[in-house]
Amino acid sequence: MSALVLDIDRLSITSGARRLVEEISLRVAPGERVGLIGESGSGKSLTALASVGLLAEGLVPSGSIRLGGHQVVGAADSALAKLRGEVAAMVFQEPLTALDPLMPIGRQLAEVVRRHARRNRHSMDRRSVERAVLDLVRQVSLPHPDRLVRSFPHEISGGQRQRVAIAMALACEPQLLIADEPTTALDVTTQAEILTLLRDLVTARNMALLFISHDLPVVAGIAERVIVMRQGAIVEEGTVSQVFAKPAHAYTKSLMAAARSFDDALEIPR
Amino acid sequence: MSDLVSLPATTRTRGPLPRALLVGLFIVGLQLVIALMTLVWTPYDPSALAGQRLEAPSLIHLAGTDRLGRDLFTLIMIGARIALTVGCGAILIGGLIGVTIGLAAAFAARTLDDVFAAGLDILIAFPTLLIAMLIVASSDGASLWTATLAIGVANSAIVARLTRILGKRVLALDYITAARISGSSWLSIVFRHVLPNIWPTLMVNLALQFGLAVIAEASLSYLGLGTPPPNASWGRLLQEAQATVQTAPLGAIAPGLALVALVIGINLLADGLRDLSDPARRSA
Ligand SMILES: Nc1ncnc2c1ncn2[C@@H]1O[C@H](COP(=O)(O)OP(=O)(O)OP(=O)(O)O)[C@@H](O)[C@H]1O
Ligand SMILES: [Mg+2]
């Protein structure tokens, strides 16, 4: 049995005759922060969803995915349901659809807290659930926790909503947090704040992080190791400094050139 | 701007109730009171000949009399009871069957979902009339209940199709995926997230079905597949007044107005309730 949190071995994902992901292998050790980079449509989200056994219907995985030591490919949904909340949690790209619009934020958080407690077979009374919720809100540095928990999602900003989504993920106390472009929909300042928050939180809890992005500098700031995907395959892999100092693959070079010229464009007017 | 700074300035205070809700409540409430009253009291015996034929409105016959000499106001009051029974019954039956099938289809695996979708399309193509004839044929004869059941079953296909589409849309959202990843069961996803989120749209559609059900009952009555006499529904009154609409238009106008008022009232009620259930509108 491996000690890896996530161990993907020659995973392919097909949709009918189309191969969307091609024999990728990927490992995340406990407490490790891994970045997954690639252009749009390269199969990053599919890989992430496959890891928790939530591929859309019609998409067929083959190969092996071990999540917390348990095989995900071909596992029954009931077996996966247990595994998911314990081992992995996920934060998505779109803050607009990350939360249920009809439920006050406190209730959404409370639901996860209660479910997590039930799973670990200790019962929580209402007061301790409330306390746990406020504590989570504080941990993601949201202002006025007691007021925030009574707000509805439409009453807070996109960045605040992402913080709530992160809090919900933390409530599960997972070993692995999968963040699928959690900052792409946010402005630059907010993006930086969320990244710092994510990094601090996972480091403090010794949680592993699989961070998905198409933005090189963002990944460089948060990950220790990066994996570059292109058209469903892994083209390059290494520590951040390795990949950035000496990109081996032409595609990585072009990604870096693009990032650099973008930076330059920002610098010129100053 | 940093997202750390601002929050809604004060805690939310609930605004006034939507006006649509109040007007709808008033109209439907009034008709409900009248309908309940007919169970214990009506101005006249509905089947008795209370006056001359086709009398004009007067203090003793508020809406005049019909072509047999029955008191029209009494008949309209009883019609309210029938309309509310048919409408509520039909949307209850249609809603229960429809939402259940629709949700099952939304959750089902793709092949099963295709079967559901095709089945619903066939059921929708089935005229209510045919369903009503089948139900009457397999029971003791036409009654208010066979008509209600037939209309409800016909409604259920429409409700199911809508529920399926709305449900699928909600199920594709990130917060559902997040809930599944955190280990939510299907049942809790249905009751906590899917139903509350599709309910506002569903409710407005059900209100529409309510009006259509009342009208459908009228057509069924006309064909002898609905409420038997002497309990004249508004639909039957309308059809009976057809022959004399030139000389005594009130016979058609009065039940027509009652019907229109109820349908508008129900729709206003549904609109108001939808606004109330939407936090974004409520706090606006
Ligand atoms: N449900 C699906 N059925 C069929 N093909 C799909 C499905 N979902 C995704 N794909 C295809 O799989 C490929 C990879 O998609 P994926 O969502 O993993 O890309 P991504 O790397 O996350 O891109 P982005 O950066 O835009 O999020 C795309 O070509 C997409 O068209
Ligand atoms: Mg993606």
Question: How would you explain this protein's 3D organization?
Answer:
The complex is a heterodimer of chains A (270) and B (284). Chain A is of the alpha/beta class. Chain A has a domain at 6-95 and 176-265: 3-Layer(aba) Sandwich (Rossmann fold), CATH 3.40.50.300. Chain A contains ten helices and ten strands. In chain A, the strands form two sheets. Chain A has a six-stranded mixed β-sheet, sandwiched between helices. In chain A, helix 3 (105-119) crosses helix 4 (126-139) and helix 4 (126-139) crosses helix 6. The termini of chain A are far apart. The mean pLDDT of chain A is 89. Chain B is mainly α. Chain B has one domain (73-278): MetI-like fold, CATH 1.10.3720. Helices cover 68% and strands 0% of the residues of chain B. Chain B has ten helices and no strands. Chain B has helices at residues 19-37, 72-107, 110-125, 128-137, 144-171, 174-181, 186-222, 234-241, 250-277, 279-282. Chain B starts with 18 loop residues before the first helix and ends with a helix. The model of chain B has no long low-confidence stretch (mean pLDDT 85). The A-B interface holds A 49, 52, 54, 57-58, 81-82, 84-86, 88-94, 97-103, 108, 111-112, 115-116, 119, 141-144, 147-148, 150-152, 154-160, 163, 165, 168-169, 171-172, 189-190, 193 and B 1-8, 11-12, 109-110, 173-175, 177-178, 180-185, 192-193, 196-197, 277-280, 283. Bound molecules: adenosine-5'-triphosphate and magnesium ion. Residues 44-45, 180 of chain A line the site of magnesium ion (MG). Residues 15, 20, 38, 40-46, 56, 58-59, 214 of chain A line the site of adenosine-5'-triphosphate. Chain A: One of its GO terms (cellular component) is plasma membrane. Chain A: InterPro entries: AAA+_ATPase, ABC_Ni/Peptide_Import, ABC_transporter-like_ATP-bd, ABC_transporter-like_CS, P-loop_NTPase. Chain A: It holds the Pfam family ABC_tran. Chain A: Its main location: membrane. Chain A: It is found in: Cell inner membrane.
